[in-house]
Amino acid sequence: MIPNILPILVVMAVMVLFQMPLDMFTMLVGSIAIGLAVDDTIHFVHNFRRYYRQCGNAHEAVRRTLTTTGRAMLTTSIVLSIGFFVYMFAYMRNMFNFGLLTGMAIIVALLADFLLAPALMVLITPHNETHEERKAHDTHTS
Asked: In a designed cystine with 4, which of 37, 131, 135, 136 is the match (CB 3.0 to 4.6 A)?
């Protein structure tokens, strides 16, 4: 959940920093952002587990996940953020804030899933030695 909370914290910090009001539109940003962030994180973790079972190496599983699932996450996040950034052309200030904050939250969620989630997965996943690593270790200790 750490990568999923980060976008909301960043949005709240931006709101405080730029003194944006907490209104009906800005309250929606949190629920939309957490929904999209959780969706991307689930896809990342699911595919990480699949690749980890195949290769037994967390670093390789992260690399495979980012090159496959990461591309889809990048594409959907770009499309969604642009879709919300369109609201910034509205004349109403609350619509502008909504589009800016939601688009920004989507980008922060993507960055968290690309940078923070892989690091956390490598840290919490037990290291399984591959056949080659065991062989090299056995020859050095003999």
From this structure: 37
The reply to whether 3 falls in a domain is no
d(CA 130, CA 128): 6
Give 1-64 as a 3 state SS string. Answer: CHHHHHHHHHHHHHHHHCCCCCCHHHHHHHHHHHHHHHHHHHHHHHHHHHHHHHHCCHHHHHHH
Q: What is the pTM of this model?
A: 0.83
Decide: residue 124, CB within 10 A, 0-12 exposed, 13-18 middle, 19+ buried: exposed
Is the pLDDT at 129 greater than 70, yes or no?
Answer: no
pLDDT of residue 134: 45
- Residue 44: name the closest of 69, 19, 72, 17 by CA: 69
Domain range for 66? 28-120
Nearest CA to 64 out of 53, 80, 79, 77 is that of: 53
Tell me whether residue 80 is in a domain: yes
Domain total for the chain?
Answer: 1
Distance of alpha carbon 124 from its chain centroid, rounded? 17
- What whole-number distance in Å separates Cα of residue 135 and Cα of residue 139? 6
